[in-house]
């Protein structure tokens, strides 16, 4: 038997991650919980228990990966978002707490639209640049489990991403978090560069597109976080389309998305887009030029985060 207890390993690993992580103790706690299948309380109750060799080997490897900057969520394959446990891989952006603000506002918009007596059929929602699927899934799961919306009245959600790998992650999350087959049928998955392969019109478009300026992406990825550039770089153009306006400030994809979305909006539809502090004002201004009424929402830190656009 090795000499490591949960307590001594936690001390050792936390010191090893000092200067690498802003939250070394929390990182080690999450890794220990994952390896031992413990919750926070069990981690404390069994702090003097020895770690089995198999789990210790996994933990050593996990700490070495984390020491390079590799995110805890990619090591464990899990990330909590909006109270739900999402499966994540390096093929998708790790869900961030600030994006939960978009989910909150989306739920408000949906419930308001559902109260409108003119909406007889279920709403149609597009989760554009879906990644892990955290936005669309959180919205539908909350409507069903918290707001108690009957299955037949739940919105139809089209999950769109340019990455086939991302869509596979999103499909897995739908299956794991929404095991009811009738609810799973509410989801459609489309691989597409923005709206290229999308035919439908929508009452609400939810999107967290790439919006980081190209010049900042390398700096952002320098810490070894290994998140996909495709999900970050707002100026990474995959193919040239007529009418595209390309920039270097992170708004190329945002502007193309808004222009294309205009052809996919139902009457009185809304776009709710995360743009971050980088581009909220520019996005709102561009949307206004296309005839939208806009509203900017702040995130948990009070910074500009989401732009709401209504025709």
Write a short abstract of this structure:
The protein has 311 residues and is of the alpha/beta class.
Indicate the proportion of strand residues. Answer: 15-25%
Please work out how many helical segments DSSP would assign.
12
Radius of gyration, whole Å: 21 Å
Distance between the termini: 67 Å
Order of helices and strands: HHHHHEEHEHEHHEEHHEHEE
Which parts are unreliable, with pLDDT below 50 for 5 consecutive residues or more?
Answer: none
Helix/strand structural class: alpha/beta
Largest sheet: 7 strands, mixed
Main sheet strand line-up = 5-4-3-6-7-9-8
Helicity, in percent?
Answer: 40-55%
Mean pLDDT: 92
Number of strand elements: 9
Q: Tell me the overall shape.
A: globular
Task: Lay out the secondary structure.
Blueprint: H1 6-16, H2 24-36, H3 40-45, H4 53-67, H5 72-76, E1 78-81, E2 84-87, H6 100-115, E3 124-128, H7 134-145, E4 156-161, H8 164-177, H9 181-184, E5 187-191, E6 202-207, H10 214-221, H11 252-261, E7 265-274, H12 276-289, E8 293-298, E9 304-310
Parallel strand pairs: 3-4, 3-6, 4-5, 6-7
Antiparallel strand pairs: 1-2, 7-9, 8-9
Helix pairs in contact: 1-2, 2-4, 6-7
Describe the structure.
It is a single chain. By secondary structure, the protein is of the alpha/beta class. The chain has helices at residues 6-16, 24-36, 40-45, 53-67, 72-76, 100-115, 134-145, 164-177, 181-184, 214-221, 252-261, 276-289; strands at 78-81, 84-87, 124-128, 156-161, 187-191, 202-207, 265-274, 293-298, 304-310. The strands form two sheets. Strands 5-4-3-6-7-9-8 form a seven-stranded mixed sheet, with helices on both faces. Helix 1 crosses helix 2 and helix 6 packs across helix 7. The longest helix is centred in the middle third of the chain and has 16 residues, at 100-115. It is globular. It starts with 5 loop residues before the first helix and ends with a strand.
